[in-house]
Amino acid sequence: MDEISTPGRVAEPGAGITLHELQLAARNHGLPLEAMRYDLTPPGLHYLLIHYDIPYLPADAWRLRVDGLVDRPLELDLAALRTMPTHTVRVTMECAGNGRARLEPRPVSQPWLVEAIGTAEWTGVPLRHVLAAAGVDASAVELVFTGADHGVERGVEQDYQRSLTVADASEPDVLLAYAMNGAPLTPQHGAPVRLVTPGWYGMAQVKWLVRIEAVATPFEGFQQATAYRFRQQPDEPGEPVTRMAPRALLVPPGFPDFMSRVRVVRPGPVPLEGRAWSGRSPVTAVEVSADGGGTWFPADLDPPNMHRWAWRRWRAAWTATPGTHVLTARALTADGEEQPTAQAWNRGGFANNAAQHVEVHCLT
Ligand SMILES: Nc1nc2c(c(=O)[nH]1)N[C@H]1C(S)=C(S)[C@@H](COP(=O)(O)O)O[C@H]1N2
Ligand SMILES: [Mo]
């Protein structure tokens, strides 16, 4: 029983990742960063994060219950959902734990470096249409979303559940998505229907959605009130993790060393490119450094486009000289938020958007 009631912990200084963390990392893979060249992440390359097991949920047996404080409780099957108005949104999604493995001390959990990202076009029914059909009562303050997956986490047995305020849930781009990049959802991404909340970290985007309940008081479930809080001490309530902090990443330049993945380039011009995004205010500039953050120069950002919630490509020119270099990039947003070069530590290891460092060896 010890195994299943272990409280959240941070690793001893210098301790390597555990076999439990390796097991999580093998199930939940990241985006190979070279795939950031694609505007839309090809199927199978989008990162994955699954707390428990992928539930077996055949599409023809699936039902979505909408109940609680509503005038007309609903039970929808996939055919009923598909008769409702559809909308497609391009969304860059990132796990709130992205960057966790670089924190010191290291919170013990899924050990992401920087690769827990992906960009997909999600198609489905805007949630507000379903809420209107059910008639959410004025006394409701939140909607609780329940997935079909079940597990135990730090001793608490649970279905995966998250909530949104009625206002957040009614945003026009919040979807009950049944397609990803034009194809039915795959089992690992939440088939047959998941919630998509553009701009939010991944934990809000409940997969294998089977129930939406309108409730009169803020939801206090595990994934809302215990996990996904910014805390320095285990016993403080903490602030909730919500929207994605700004981040820029480089498409790895040159070619990799197999084991270390250190990059190798030849002397001369090396075109740099990458992506930048924020779930808060839009990214308006990216800066690049070739000396580990000592000096910065501006990158060229692709023109703003219609995809408010998707990453933007940036490019920069760099001339490599023999030796070792540390490339880094940082995103800046319209409201003046600057991606930090130092990490902001918290016990859960959330939202560590410290600028990425890419070690490059230039041959002679
Ligand atoms: N039902 C359910 N929904 C879930 C999860 C889960 O474990 N169960 N993981 C969440 C987390 S933490 C993330 S980061 C995203 C990952 O979505 P993806 O695997 O499609 O990239 O799904 C979210 N939705
Ligand atoms: Mo996540």
Structural description of this entry:
- There is one protein chain.
- The mean pLDDT is 97.
- The strands form five sheets. Strands 14-15-22-21-17-18 form a six-stranded mixed beta sheet, with no helix packed on it. It has a five-stranded mixed beta sheet with strand order 2-1-10-5-6.
- It contains five helices and 22 strands.
- It has helices at 19-27, 78-82, 127-134, 166-169, 222-226; strands spanning 64-68, 74-76, 87-94, 117-126, 142-153, 156-165, 175-180, 183-184, 194-196, 209-215, 229-230, 239-240, 247-250, 255-256, 263-265, 268-277, 283-289, 297-298, 300-301, 312-320, 323-333, 357-362.
- The protein folds into two domains: 3-240, Oxidoreductase, molybdopterin-binding domain (Sulfite Oxidase, Chain A, domain 2, Alpha-Beta Complex), CATH 3.90.420.10; 247-362, Sandwich (Immunoglobulin-like).
- With 364 residues, the chain is mainly beta.
Percent of sequence in beta strands: 25-35%
> What's the rounded overall pLDDT mean?
97
Which outline best applies? globular
CATH level-1 class of the largest domain: Alpha Beta
CATH superfamily of the largest domain: Oxidoreductase, molybdopterin-binding domain
Q: If you consult CATH, what is the topology of the largest domain?
A: Sulfite Oxidase, Chain A, domain 2
Treating each run of at least 4 consecutive H or I residues as one helix, how many helices?
A: 5
The CATH architecture name of the largest domain reads Alpha-Beta Complex
| Helix-strand category | mainly beta
Separation, N- and C-terminal Cα atoms: 57 Å
Q: Nearest-angstrom radius of gyration? A: 21 Å
What sequence of helices (H) and strands (E) makes up the elements? HEEHEEHEEHEEEEHEEEEEEEEEEEE
How many domains in all?
A: 2
